[in-house]
Amino acid sequence: MPTRNHTPPSPSPSKQSHPMGETTIGTTLRPGQKGTRELLRSYGDQLVCVRYRYDKTRGKRYKTVELIIDEQDWMPGVTIQPDRRAPIEVGYGETELREQIKAAGGFWNAEKRAWMLSYRKILQMGLENRIIDEELGM
Q1: What does the pLDDT look like over 82-91, one tens digit per residue?
Q2: From CA 77, how far away is CA 62, in angstroms rounded?
Q3: Whole-angstrom distance between the N-terminal and C-terminal Cα of the chain?
Q4: What is the Cβ-side half-sphere exposure of residue 100, based on CA atoms within 13 angstroms?
Q5: Are 52 and 26 a contacting pair, CB within 8 Å?
Q6: Which of 76, 94, 95, 126 is the most exposed, having the fewest neighbouring CB atoms within 10 Å of its CB?
Q7: What is the pTM of this model?
Q8: In whole angstroms, what is the distance from residue 50 CA to residue 136 CA?
Q9: Which of 103, 100, 80 is CA-nearest to residue 90?
Q10: From CA 83, how far away is CA 109, in angstroms rounded?
Q11: Which residues does the chain have with pLDDT short of 70?
Q12: What is the pLDDT of residue 18?
């Protein structure tokens, strides 16, 4: 796979129009379909799709590509209400942290064997990596 350097576009003045103008998408092709093979050789696994866009005002057809330029692990968003209490893991010897959690309104839940604290406070204290509730997706 060829290495490509990606330079982000520099901010353009608000009055400068995009070179394509107003376009509509006519066709979207997946890698390997007719019309994508040369681009597939150039971009390899980075190629997501090829699109044909049409500018009726200028009477132009543009062939564009969508490329993968970065890949990172991602966890689907979990929306947690700020006041919802979540169990967090605190080690037996972390007495100072336990006292901070108590001062922030936290309490020990014997059934879950974890300290409970509102999600808002968890974020404020930087403890999100200690959340142990599987139903929250953590």
Answers
A1: 899 999 999 9
A2: 35
A3: 35
A4: 12
A5: yes
A6: 76
A7: 0.45
A8: 38
A9: 100
A10: 17
A11: 1-18, 75, 78, 133-138
A12: 62
Tokens of 24: 């509509």
- Residues whose CB falls within 8 Å of the CB of residue 76, separated by 6 or more in sequence, listed in order: 137
What's the rounded Cα separation, in Å, for the pair 120 and 83?
Answer: 6
* Count, residues in the chain: 138
Token pair 């974890």: residue: 114
Structure tokens at 19: 């070179």
CA dist 17 and 37 (Å) reads 31
Which residue from 138, 15, 126 is spatially nearest to 78, judged by alpha carbons? Answer: 138
The DSSP code for 49 is: E
Question: Which helix (H) or strand (E) is 38 found in, with range?
Answer: helix 37-43
Neighbours of 118 (CB within 10 A): 18
Q: How far is residue 15 from each of residues 8, 55, 57, measured CA to CA in Å?
A: 20, 19, 18
| DSSP per-residue letters across 60-122 | EEEEEEEE--------------TT-EEEE---TT-HHHHHHHHHTT-EEETTTTEEEEEHHHH
Place of tokens 């190629």: 47
Locate 138 and state its tokens.
Answer: 């953590």
